[in-house]
Amino acid sequence: MLKNKMSPKLPLLLTTLAFLVILHGAVGRPMPKADTPKDMINKLQSIFKVGEGIMVYNTGIAREELEDDEIVCAERRAGKSYCKEVENYMEATRLDKIDSEQFAKFKEYFIDDLAQPQLVATRMDFGKSPCNSKTNIIYPESAESEDSKWLLIVQHAQHKQGVLVEECENVGQPCEENSTLPLEDMPKCKQNFSYRKLVVLVNGEMKEEMVKLPTTCECKMCST
Questions:
Q1: Same domain, 147 and 106
Q2: What domain range is 188 assigned to?
Q3: How far apart are CA 215 and CA 200, in angstroms?
Q4: SS3 for 135?
């Protein structure tokens, strides 16, 4: 893309920003010493980068890690214990800056789980499961720990942790058709979870942690 010369309106934008900041200080609490417009423009130029089209970009340094309450995704909002994709994951983890020796130290974790056909065949002997579920391999970027904290899981382009999970499609729904029992007494589909050890990132260092992931879906009475 061709780079155009800076618009003549850009200096006017900076001057306007400086004027507004000075005006805010004048009508707010008294300032020890008011900055001149020139001083304020210099400060603004050190904070913001102004490009063609009067666009203002924040050039601050990204944080090294997301806080627990900042790890948000569609799965977490839906009440699940993991996130498939975390916003700003690469910026938060900085995995491209981590020494290759750390990856080598945990190389046994960077594989995909293998499905076990014999277990599927065994389950089919009992007929169709009363609860609909899906089984697949996911690559979670975050998950809940044993102490209910959300951790960032290491998922690098060449070092991924594939986890086999089974998830209910109808959690909380009755799993028996044509039952004579009242709705509140009918068995319902329940999602089961288990904790497994994965490699997570804490303060720029890799470590092993137990995280909560969905395992099986079964039909159970609400009281059990």
A1: yes
A2: 68-220
A3: 20
A4: strand
In a domain, 200, yes or no: yes
Q: What is the pLDDT of residues 135-188, one digit of tens each?
A: 999 999 999 999 999 999 999 999 999 999 999 998 888 886 656 767 777 889
Q: Give burial (CB, 10 Å; 0-12/13-18/19+) of 147.
A: exposed
Domain at 104, CATH number: 2.10.90.10
- Name the token pair of 38: 């020139």
Angstrom distance (rounded) from CA 209 to CA 200: 7
- Among candidates 197, 196, 214, which has minimal Cα distance to 106? 197
CA separation for the pair 138, 97 (Å, rounded): 24
State the amino acid at position 6 in one-letter form.
M
Number of domain units in the chain: 2
| 38-77 pLDDT, tens digit each | 565 555 454 444 444 434 333 333 445 678 778 989 999 9
89 and 182 share one domain = yes
